[in-house]
Design a protein that fits this description.
mainly alpha, cell membrane
Length: about 190
């Protein structure tokens, strides 16, 4: 569901920028699998998105569906924002877990692996359409990912089972993101003169 939700946000951004069906599919795929592919390449792994065609297949299907049904689905976009929040939590901890498997209990690789998995596709999406990545200018999104990963790391460091630590980290990141959406939380910015 996280991959699908991320692909929906990519397809929506492409549609907003008047892309054709190919552009919609490309942006859906970039957002859906871009973070995981980037993480795998950095950690010297063959990208899961290329070895298991289900991921790219899902993102292509989402792009096609969004091309034909965008106007009908547009009214239900709020539900996809919830799935996007869940995807953020899952991908944050999944990326941190992969880093943990590769390098062990090392904080910076786990933080980087989790964050690039969770927000990498969205950053690529915004760069492709020549916008400043949204995680740099508004919304509590990357911070939710960071908090979830820090909790996951702290629990592993104190001897908690990896599965329990994963669930708690996912719930924390997802919960913070959902609260941020509900209460319109944003990080502070420099005030202009």
């Amino acid at each position: 569901m996280g991959t699908i939700a991320f692909a929906v946000t990519g397809a929506s951004k492409a549609i907003a920028h008047k892309a054709d069906i190919f552009g919609i599919i490309v942006l859906a795929t970039v957002v859906g699998v871009g973070g995981g592919v980037t993480r795998d390449v950095i950690f010297g792994r063959f990208p899961t998105a290329f070895s298991d065609p289900i991921y790219v297949g899902l993102t292509v299907a989402v792009g096609v569906v969004m091309f034909f049904l965008f106007r009908k689905l547009q009214k239900r976009m709020n539900i996809w924002l919830v799935f996007d929040a869940v995807g953020l939590g899952v991908f944050s901890i999944l990326g941190a877990s992969i880093a943990y498997q590769v390098v062990g209990l090392e904080f910076l690789p786990m933080l980087f692996g989790g964050m690039i998995t969770a927000i990498g596709g969205g950053i690529l999406r915004d760069v492709f359409v020549r916008e400043i990545p949204i995680v740099f200018v508004k919304e509590v999104y990357a911070i939710a990912s960071i908090i979830g990963i820090v909790i996951f790391y702290a629990m592993l460091s104190s001897g908690v089972d990896v599965q329990i630590a994963s669930v708690i980290g996912i719930v924390a990141a997802t919960g913070i993101r959902l609260l941020a959406m509900k209460f319109n939380w944003n990080l502070p910015k420099v005030r202009e003169i």
